[in-house]
Specification:
Layout: E1 4-8, H1 11-16, H2 23-35, E2 39-42, H3 54-64, E3 69-75, H4 82-95, E4 100-104, H5 111-119, H6 127-141, E5 147-150, E6 154-158, E7 172-174, H7 179-188, E8 191-192, H8 199-215, E9 224-233, H9 237-252, H10 256-260, E10 265-268, H11 270-282, E11 287-292, H12 296-305
Helix pairs in contact: 3-4, 4-6, 7-8, 8-11
Length: 312
């Protein structure tokens, strides 16, 4: 099995710190790649949790670091017109020479997210349908052939250019967590990309994902199982866990206990963090995207230096 490691850029954190400069994040991406990371990722939000636009930022990363995979963790396609989105993603995929991955989700149901959708002029209700149809329309446009579309959006003989570098367009990894969402992912998308909540549940849901994909006639070798993990490395495990709690509550403005109920997080010493990440790899994760809390260098060095242990 080949394991890939991804580094999540701290776009939201930089805004919280009133330090919006992009150049340091490009340098952080380069440093992660030099350490041995395989991919660079950026999250998405307009107003609920303000941050840099992930599509624009990843275009910069792709241009600055040739040969690296870049991905969204995760994009909210329903907030965007899919015709515009198809062109943006095709352009980034050209910059990345076929190495763009679109991690995507429907967004949680919170008051801040509902206000975000309203501000963007997008109905919150029915967002699953908008999400699924929008991705189908993107893929139709990525063919480069004339597209006629009569759903939520109207297209008459529309031809997109450029089309993506990768034939068929970038893979779509869905961040589904409920059974129906996982089944939709298995039938229609290219990867499953949850955020938790724990290794046992993850392994069970991954089996369900693979079983549904098999039932749908999909080739499992062409599908990816990924996981989004939040970790902090310190000699004192209690201090590391406290650092994650403080981070989560500042980031989401919600109790850490509630957030940990659906997000996979671990603070601890090197051995404890390696054991934590390994448990998800054993559960089927092929691509692990890491959100660092505290010392990003310490997390990166640990995972890259002890990478082989994650597979044992």
């Amino acid at each position: 099995m080949t394991l890939k490691l991804g580094y999540l850029l701290p776009t939201r954190e930089k805004i919280m710190q009133e330090s919006p400069s992009v150049r340091p994040m490009i340098e952080a991406a380069k440093k992660a790649v030099d350490q041995g990371f395989d991919s660079i990722w950026a999250g998405d939000s307009l107003l609920a949790r303000p941050r840099h636009d992930p599509i624009t930022l990843l275009a910069g990363v792709a241009g600055a670091i040739p040969g690296i995979e870049v991905g969204t963790a995760v994009l909210l396609p329903a907030l965007r017109n899919p015709v515009v989105l198809a062109q943006q993603l095709a352009t980034v995929d050209q910059l990345a020479e076929g190495r763009l991955i679109v991690g995507a989700g429907i967004a949680p149901d919170t008051p801040a997210v509902r206000r975000e959708f309203a501000a963007a002029g997008v109905p919150f209700e029915g967002r699953v349908g908008r999400y699924m149809e929008g991705i189908r329309l993107c893929r139709a446009l990525w063919s480069g052939q004339p597209v006629d579309w009569g759903g939520r959006w109207s297209v008459e003989a529309g031809v997109l250019a450029p089309i993506p570098y990768r034939d068929g367009g970038p893979p779509i990894w869905s961040a589904a967590t409920v059974p129906k969402g996982i089944e939709r992912t298995a039938k229609h998308h290219d990867g499953w990309f949850p955020i938790g909540p724990d290794a046992t549940t993850f392994a069970q849901r991954n089996e369900a994902f693979r079983a549904a994909a098999t039932l749908a006639g999909r080739n499992l070798a062409e599908l990816t199982t990924a996981i989004y993990l939040t970790v902090s490395v310190m000699d004192n495990a209690e201090e590391a866990e406290d650092a994650i709690d403080t981070y989560l509550e500042s980031y989401y403005q919600a109790p850490a206990s509630a957030l940990r109920s659906y997000q996979a997080c671990k603070g601890g010493n090197g051995d404890q963090v390696i054991d934590f990440v390994r448990s998800f790899v054993q559960g089927g994760a092929q691509h692990v995207i890491i959100r660092c809390v505290g010392d990003h260098d310490a997390v990166q060095e640990l995972l890259c230096q002890r990478r082989d242990e994650l597979l044992n």
